[in-house]
Structures are given as C-alpha cells and as structure tokens.
Amino acid sequence: MAQTMTQQIPDTHFDDVASAKRTLATEVSGLQALSESLNGEFVRAIETIQAMKDKGRGRLIVAGIGKSGHVARKISATLASTATPSYYIHPGEASHGDLGMITEDDVIILLSYSGTNAELTDMIGYAKRFNIPLIAMTGNPDSPLAQHSDIALILPKIPEACPNGLAPTTSTTQMMALGDAIAVALLERMGLTAEQFRVWHPGGKLGQKLRKVSDLMVKGDDLPFVSADTLMSDALITLSAKNLGSVVVVDEAKSLIGIVTDGDLKRHMAPDLLTRKVSEIMTKNPRSIRADILAVKALEIMVGHEGSSPITSLIVADDAGHVVGLIRIQELLKAGLV
User: Fold this and answer.
1) E strands of the chain, at which residues?
2) The architecture CATH gives domain 213-334
3) Long-range contacts of 119-127 (CB under 8 A, 24+ apart)
4) At the topology level of CATH, where does 22-192 sit?
5) pLDDT tens-place string over residues 55-105
C-alpha cells in the first residue's frame, strides 16, 4: 500500500505584516531619495522628448531587459496613454531586426539598473550611429549605458527590499516612479484637459467617466417639448408618449422657460389639474448644463453634490439658453458612471 507522506512544517513564527512594512519602508525611502536626486538631467530628458513631440513625428522608444523590461513596458504604456507616442522594444529582438523599427526622429530610453547588460549593446550602438537621442535610466553612473548615453537619469543607491539584496524591488519601484514622473511632466506641459484625455481612453471605466453630456443626452425629436400655454391634459399626453418622466417648457425659439416633472404633478394634484396651463404647474428656471461638460458633473448635480435636492433629469442648454437635450440619471447609470 502506498504510504501517505505528511510534510513537516517547521515551528517557526513569521511576522508577515512586519515584513511587509519593512519592504514598503525601504521602497518609500528609495522614492524619497529619488525625488531628492532629480536635477538638470531630468529637465534635459523632458526637453529632449518634448522637442521630438514638437516636430510632430517620432516616438519615444522604451526598452529594458528582465524586470527592467517589464517596467519599460508599463512606462511606455503610460506615456502612450498620456499623449506621448511611445512603444516598447525588446533589446534582444532589436538585435535580430527590430532595430529597423527605430527611426532618426525617435528618442530612446534604455532601462538597466546595472547598466552593463550585453543585450543593450546593439541598441546603444544603433543610437550612436544614427544620432538618436539616448536617455539612460540606471543605478550605475560608471556603466557603459550611462557613459554612452546623451542623458543619464541615475537612480540613487538604496538597498533592495529583498532580504538577500538580490531580487529587484526598490530599484524597479524607482524606475516605475521615474517613468510616471516623465509622463506627468510631459502631460502638464501639454495642458491636456480631461475631455482631451478621453481620446486615449475611449474604453473601460475611465473612458466612461470621461464621456460628455452630449454623448448620453436625449435630443432631437425625442425631446418632450411643450409651450407655457399648453393645457396640462395635452402636456400629460406628451409626457406619456416621450416616457422621460418630465416635459420641457420652451418658447418658439426653444429657449428654456421651465420643466414639469413627476414631483410637480404630485404637488399640484387637484381635480382641476388637467384644465390648468403648464405655466401654472411648471418649475421656473430649472437647473441646466452644457452639452460639452463631462457627464460625471451632471451626475454630481443630480445627486445633490452642490447642496441641492437630488433630481432625476437635467436640461441641456447652450450658452444662449436654447434647449438642445435632456440627460437623465438612468442614462448615467447605464453608462457605468456610478
């Protein structure tokens, strides 16, 4: 019969929380040292990349090996999503033909903590041959990478969080953060608005939050328009036909006059309701919003983030006060803005 083997677990107490705190404290100290180390080289790097962007051509090539390569991929993705054209190239693949993807209009950032990886040699040589600006991100100022780069971003020497000092931890955190700093500095130079930012984020939760009121509003023939002189009996027919929970009161030029909601009907419920005019029932000067405003702002207004009572719909009007749409909280919920 097969004998069941039971693994003996040593009676050793591990304080996992204390270990995690030491790791994070080490990495925090690495980020603090990195912040304090920033100097004119960082500014030169930003200006070099910006000059490439100003020409309207070229891309920021980001490359690295091992853990630095994984960080390089993330940095490149962040740059591309913040309006700096960028892509990642694997140095090994570059040596076997992908160097042809790099043009003289590009800028290269090479990541290597030691700066001595043999796999980087061909990319360094290629950059020198074609006068392509080369930015190094390394922890070794005396390395071949740092010495042959045009700009060297030197990471300060802080111990790795790994107890053996071997696994890249603090150093990769520094690289990741430095990449974010580059991306944000370039983004702030552009003055990119949230609306413009959506161009690079059309999908996912972020894309939904960057949608405009115009993307979600009811418009055109679907709008429940009535005039101020309309009898409530006719207004109720329009309210039922359009099925939007309210009717918008406008003049002949479609200028906003008021709105009649379910709440207005409840407040004025009486035997003579159907014979009264809309002007007697409507809420005058209702809140409105422009079509080019972010939809999340409309949601804030509806749920009362501006010190007012919650509402379920909001009129969309242009600067002249002409009604161009109606946005309801149902559309915002369907769009995943909550």
Assistant:
1) 60-64, 86-88, 107-111, 134-138, 151-154, 225-226, 246-250, 256-261, 283-284, 288-289, 313-317, 323-328
2) Roll (3.10)
3) 119/65, 119/91, 119/92, 119/95, 120/63, 120/65, 120/91, 120/144, 120/145, 122/91, 122/94, 122/95, 123/63, 123/89, 123/91, 123/94, 123/95, 123/99, 124/148, 124/149, 126/94, 126/99, 126/102
4) Rossmann fold (3.40.50)
5) 888 899 999 999 999 999 999 999 988 888 899 999 989 888 889 889 999
